[in-house]
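Model it.
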Amino acid sequence: MNTQKKRSVACPGCKKLTEFSPENPYRPFCSKRCKMIDLGLWASEQYAIPAEAKSDALGDDLPAQ
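Modeled.
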């Protein structure tokens, strides 16, 4: 007998509680709509992972002016 408790999480998009399990194909989102809105924000660069440019990676082979 499987008596596992179902885990609920807040949808990152609308904050609605949704089941976090393999039965939810959109996890951690509550719906396809919330998942696509999030994808659109990444695609339009409204979300970004911060990174610092390394000075040695900026191209030492550029001609001096």
